[in-house]
Amino acid sequence: MNSDFKTFILEATGAEKFQELEVIQSLWSGYGKIIRIALKGGQQKTAILKYISFPIKTKHPRGWNSDVSHQRKVKSYEVERSFYEYYGNKQIDARIPNCLGVIVKAEETLLVLEDLDGSGYPVRKTDVVWSELASCLQWLANFHAGYMQISPKNLWEIGTYWHLSTRPEELEVLEDIPLKNAAPKLDASLNNARYQTIVHGDAKLANFCFSKTDNQVAAVDFQYVGGGVGIKDVAYLVGSCLQEEDCERLEEKILTTYFKALQNALQKQHSSLCFEELEAEWRSLYPIAWTDFYRFLKGWSPGHWKINSYSEKIAARVLERI
């Protein structure tokens, strides 16, 4: 790590010393790592470092090592930095880590972040019961309400990591021809919606941090935050934590819970938009958002566990209509 970064960490945290406690995880394709550090002399006992260093030669777990892939990742880290610097301080009811500082030197970037474990969100889930999923839906509703109709300046113009314009290689190899032909229409339906917000873009269960007792949640990882319809985050979250039979069985309950939370969050902001129109539009886009991710997944990893009968059923219905 650049020696300037070490000095910056002390300045950002107000600590006298720090030491590495653990590497929480390596970043995708060897682009860096996330580290927990112990602090001495500062207000916090620990902090999180997200250290990004672009490798000379990349190694993608599924073999996607092109320049397109590399440039997408480079921009994703620029976007995350912008989100924390320009949007993260907006007062909304969706808990995210406080960014203590950002420093960039040549091919290296360092984000110094609040440690959510030490702030009351130490639990990670690999599966959820209903109350836990509802808490995540509440977080998404609050996030979407907080950024409703705000232009995604310095973020992805279109949020989510799988949207069509950033995934030409995956579309090229897609063998499902009807789905391939429909891809531009799916993309246009989502992007041309009247009601837009800023979406998390990677709202999988692994990116939510839970409290120990009352299912309060915070979220991390804002590399693919950008403009879009909030229902894309909802569809992606559901697909990340429920089996196919539960996706279908709970579909109406999930949507009702999310839209009720979204309506309440918008009312707190005294929003003047027509919520009935927003809900009708986004409900109609839920199967399209699901199908759009299914399109990406079938090109990116045809054997993925998320390619299931529920996704196939939804996609078939959507393709009949467009």
Model description:
It is built from ten helices and nine strands. With 322 residues, it is α+β, with helices and mostly antiparallel strands. The protein has two domains: 3-118, Phosphorylase Kinase, domain 1 (2-Layer Sandwich), CATH 3.30.200.20; 121-321, Aminoglycoside 3'-phosphotransferase, Chain: A, domain 2 (Alpha-Beta Complex), CATH 3.90.1200. The strands form three sheets. The protein has a five-stranded antiparallel β-sheet, with helices on both faces. The protein has a two-stranded antiparallel sheet with strand order 6-9. Strands 7-8 form a two-stranded antiparallel sheet. A hairpin with a 2-residue loop joins strand 4 and strand 5.
Largest sheet: 5 strands, antiparallel
**Count of DSSP strands:** 9
Number of domains: 2
Task: Indicate the CATH class of the largest domain.
Answer: Alpha Beta
Helix content: 40-55%
Poorly predicted runs of 5 or more residues:
none
